[in-house]
Amino acid sequence: MNIAVLSDIHGNLEAFVSVLNDMYSENIDSIINLGDTVGYGAEPDKCLDILMFFCGEKVALPGEMSDSVNRYKGKCTTAVAGNHDWGVIGKLPEGWFNQTALKALKWTEKTLSIRHINFLKSLPLIDKNNNILTVHSSPIHPEEFYYITNSSHAYEALMSSGEQIVLVGHSHIPGIFVLRGENISNGVLYEHQIKGDERLLVNVGSVGQPRDGDPRASYAIFNTDNKTIKITRVDYDIDTASSKIKDAGIPVRYAERLKWGF
């Protein structure tokens, strides 16, 4: 089975749909979403509609989307909440966000329907299933949304959980940390086949706001048969996504950084 693991879509419909098209070429069977579907981008409502459709909700999708998404109806087995998801439903104080992010968050709140809000409220912060832990940030106090940015953070996160694989997003920087005994790799790894009792922490990167210097959308594919996980990059129409952000009146910073991946 091939599982697609997505995170940090951030209202970027162009990136999301391009990833969905790539998933079809990769013969994806199911989907895991690690949160922050909203925030920064100009189409959080449409991105949430798609995710809700994948999670089995009855959603009327625009015709131009249907070919890209119908194949994954009900295929999302796990979805958790991120900090921006929590922000728009009032579970994080406004002071948690910097002023630019807060402006984008306030814009997002006005764009979403009650149904979108209720869906976000229904999402857990953490999920454990089949020896896989899924969380937006860190399994250590997930409500604090700590960043995992180095091998020490990854080691602590793995040691705090009993699962073989921990899947995260949040930093928008993809990488695979491999724990062998007491030794952990530095995370500069983008494909790995699990051997023996190895344990992995995988940051799948960001679909809609990459920040590792590569502007392409990022997601991960986990093949449960051969125990291989890889980070995949996908080109998308950055100019259109950027223009939509500017036209919406969202802070221009989030439009410009799409072009550079920072």
Summarize the structure.
The chain is an alpha/beta fold and 262 residues long. The chain is built from nine helices and twelve strands. The chain has one domain (2-260): 4-Layer Sandwich (Purple Acid Phosphatase, chain A, domain 2), CATH 3.60.21.
Describe the structure.
With 262 residues, the chain is α/β, with parallel strands linked by helices. The strands form two sheets. The chain has a six-stranded mixed β-sheet with strand order 3-2-1-11-12-9. It contains nine helices and twelve strands. Helix content is 34%, strand content 21%. The relative contact order is 0.18. The protein has a single domain (2-260), classed as Purple Acid Phosphatase, chain A, domain 2 (4-Layer Sandwich).
- Going by CATH, the architecture would be 4-Layer Sandwich
The residue-averaged pLDDT reads 96
**Quantity of strands, as a count:** 12
Say which CATH homologous superfamily is assigned. Answer: Metallo-dependent phosphatases
Radius of gyration, taken over Cα atoms and rounded to an integer in Å: 17 Å
Count of runs of 4 or more consecutive helical residues:
9
Q: Supply the CATH class.
A: Alpha Beta
Low-confidence stretches: none
Structural class: alpha/beta
Strand percentage lies at: 15-25%
Largest sheet geometry: 6 strands, mixed
Report the end-to-end length measured between terminal Cα atoms. 33 Å
Strand order of the largest sheet: 3-2-1-11-12-9
Helical fraction equals 25-40%
As for the number of domains, it is: 1
The H/E string reads EHEHHEHHHEEHEEEEEEEHH
Label the overall shape: globular
According to CATH, the fold-level topology is Purple Acid Phosphatase, chain A, domain 2
